[in-house]
Structure formats: C-alpha cells, structure tokens
Amino acid sequence: MTSENRLLEIVKKFGILGIGLCGFCCLAPVFFALLGLSSLTWLFIFSEKIGIISILISLVLLGIWILKRKLGKKCSIDCSCKPEAETNLFQETVKIDTNPSLPVSCILTSEEFKSRKENELKIIKENFEDVIELKNGYTFSFTNAEIHSKDILNIILMEKRCCPFLSFNLRFPFENEIMFLDIFGEEGAKEFIKVEMGL
C-alpha cells in the first residue's frame, strides 16, 4: 500500500486532525532531541551552570530514546512511521457465507469457456494494478474505478452463472478512484482462481 493511500485513509478517518496527529507522532522525538541539543549548545557557550546543563543533556537523551523506540514501532493511528506498518484495509480472509457443497469447477462447455477466458477475464488480467493474496482467495486493486467498474460488475454477474462456487466483493474505499475486487470461496477455490488468473 502506497503512502498516498495511507494518507487518504488517515484523512478519511480523522480529517485534517489526522494529518496533524500523524506528523506529531512521527516528529515529536526529533523535535525534543533538536530542542535539547540546541539548548545544550547555547548553554555550553553562554553559561557554566552544571545543573541546567545536566537537565538539557537528559532532554537530549530522552529525545534520542523516544526516537529510537518510535522507529521500531508504528503510530497508533497507522501513519506508517515504520515502513512495515499495516493497514486494516485488507483482511486475511473474506468472511461471507458460501455453499461448501458446490463443486469447484466451471459449468461452461469448452467453447464457451475458451471465449470467456479470452474476453471477460482478459479485462481483469490486463487492468489490475496489484493483487493481494488472502487465505481463501485474492484481492485485485484497480485505479480509474469509473472506467473499469461497469466491466468488472458485468464480469462478476457472468462469473456467478458459470462458477457458482466463487464469491465476489466489489469495494470502493477511497475517493481517489481506487476499486478492489475480492474473489474467494471454499477449499479449492483459491487454486482455481490462481490458475484462471495466471497468478
């Protein structure tokens, strides 16, 4: 997930306050360290009071300690202070009631199946930006949702007729034209999706 998407999620959750909180969370230790360091430099030049110098040295060390801890953890509002910060945008498993008794196989004839692969699935394969593996399927992300959403919806409606064992979610979580398509199912469905989509 890009930093732009994380920023949009923060703005969506917390508004402008979210950006301020994120900035404070990430920059506070740096600010305290620089404040202590500059004060310490000033005191060494203009003052000989050991007590005040000791306090300011403590401030510098405190700022460095907080910064060191902060670099090892992510912010509580998920502003990606750490590169590996996770978002709650994706889940490991999509949970929707499915019918486990349905066989994992396409019910189209070979000619219909060939036509479907050449036309319908090609739209997904050629236009998705990223794919995220779930425990029971895959999530495909698309930019330019306005352009692709109608085609993807038509594909979902057709796929439900030929592959009733698959479940689909179409999500639009941002205002910046990003769309997500979850395709998932019971045991065996994930492997079927992987083969059909050429993943």
Essential attributes:
single chain, 199 residues, alpha+beta, 4-stranded antiparallel sheet, 4 strands, 55% helix, rod-shaped
Question: How is this fold's topology laid out?
Answer:
Layout: H1 3-14, H2 16-46, H3 50-71, H4 110-127, E1 130-133, E2 137-142, H5 145-162, E3 166-171, E4 179-185, H6 189-197
Antiparallel strand pairs: 1-2, 2-4, 3-4
Tell me what you see in this structure.
With 199 residues, the chain is of the alpha+beta class. The protein folds into two domains: 3-71, no CATH class; 110-197. It is built from six helices and four strands; from the N terminus they run H-H-H-H-E-E-H-E-E-H. It has a four-stranded antiparallel β-sheet, with helices on one face. A hairpin with a 7-residue loop joins strand 3 (166-171) and strand 4 (179-185). The longest helix is centred in the first third of the chain and has 31 residues, at 16-46. It is rod-shaped and about 90 Å long. Residues 74-98 have low confidence and may be disordered. Keywords: Membrane, Transmembrane, Transmembrane helix. This is Mercuric transport protein MerT.
